[in-house]
Amino acid sequence: MWCFNPGNDEQPSVAPSSSARHCSSSMEKLRSANKNVLGTYDTPPTWVSDESIPSCAACHDDFDLFNRKHHCRGCGGVFCGTCTPHSGKVLKLGLTTDVRLCGPCATSAQRENGFYARHLPLLEAGAVFVKYGFLVERTVFVKWVDGTVQYQSINVMSNVLSGIVKAIPFDTISSLTPVGVSGLYLTTPSQQHRLDAADPHIRDLWLQALRSALEMRQFQVQKIEEETAARVALEHQEMTRVMIGLESIELRKTHMQQTRLEKNQSRREALRAKYGLDVATTTGP
Predict the structure, then answer these.
(1) pTM of the full structure
(2) Quick one: average pLDDT of 225-236?
(3) Structurally, what CATH architecture does the domain formed by 1-213 represent?
(4) In terms of Cα–Cα distance, which of 42, 83, 44 is closest to 61?
(5) Where is this region: Disordered (predicted)?
């Protein structure tokens, strides 16, 4: 029974529980809290209400009778037909038939679908490996659970799991390399884990799947960085606009004060000229 709370590299996880209901509840909470973790599934986004959307979110062209509104099923945004020309599956969201997508969502789906269709089922099904430690080697059952590579001792004769579940958070894995005839190395900052499969074919399948997961993680990190940079750029643009507005207000305020002083001075001079008054001068004692 697999029930895990993410921690440090190869730290003991939750020991196998006798209560399937308790484990199921814990896993549901974990999935809810980590909906963006690599290898987890999500629900389609809530559509943005198009009633108050006047223009396309991408090209900003105004909507009218001919330029109609369309929702992207990947992000829920409102776009024009030109900016949502793509259609495809989004397996991460459980969308197994072709749906309308915007450009960025189509690119993401194209990269993610291969992992979710081919590699993730293999990793989630698990496989038996021999894990080498410092002093001993043991047979373990390895599987992917919510962005971690988890393993537990197994009796291959009875197919019974025993002992504590341990886990390697996938975001700590820096490299994946083959070793020997049917082995592979999972390298983390603190340790190099060696797993030997029953045959080279299984090793190759797992190595390919884990490398695909590593590429997906790098893609996600790049995507988050780009989104963060875009958000920071927008915030900077908005801040610049506000600062320019404040400077403009100050300039108008200064101009109005100067204009008022000039008008007052002009009125005083007009009154002096009208009544023949000299300009007031200050004399010493």
Answers:
(1) 0.65
(2) 88
(3) 2-Layer Sandwich (3.30)
(4) 83
(5) 1-21
| pLDDT classification of 279: cutoffs 50, 70, 90 | low
Of 238, 237, 186, nearest in space to 209 by CA: 186
Q: Whole-angstrom Cα distance, residue 192 to residue 9?
A: 11
pLDDT at 12 over 50: no
Averaged pLDDT of the chain = 83
Report the alpha-carbon distance of residue 108 to residue 121 in Å, rounded.
19
Q: In 3D, which of 38, 48, 43 has the Cα closest to residue 69?
A: 48
Dihedral class, residue 69 (left if φ above 0, else alpha if ψ from -120 to 50, else beta): beta
Strand blocks (E) in the chain: 11-12, 70-71, 78-79, 86-90, 95-101, 127-132, 137-145, 148-155, 160-169, 175-179, 183-187, 192-197
User: Which pLDDT tens digit goes with each residue over 16-63?
Assistant: 444 434 444 444 443 344 445 666 778 888 887 778 889 998 999 999
Phi-psi bin for 250: left (phi > 0), alpha (psi -120 to 50), beta? alpha
DSSP lists the bridge partners of residue 104 as: none
Length of the chain (residues): 285
DSSP letter assigned to residue 75: T
Smallest CA-to-CA distance from 99 within 119, 71, 127 is with: 71
Domains of the chain: which residue ranges? 1-213
Determine the Cα–Cα distance for residues 76 and 50; give it in Å rounded to an integer: 10
Query: Pick from 34, 285, 13: which is nearest to 146 by CA?
Result: 34
Per-residue pLDDT tens over the stretch 137-158: 899 999 999 889 999 999 989 9
CA-nearest of 194, 187, 202, 210 to 127 is 202
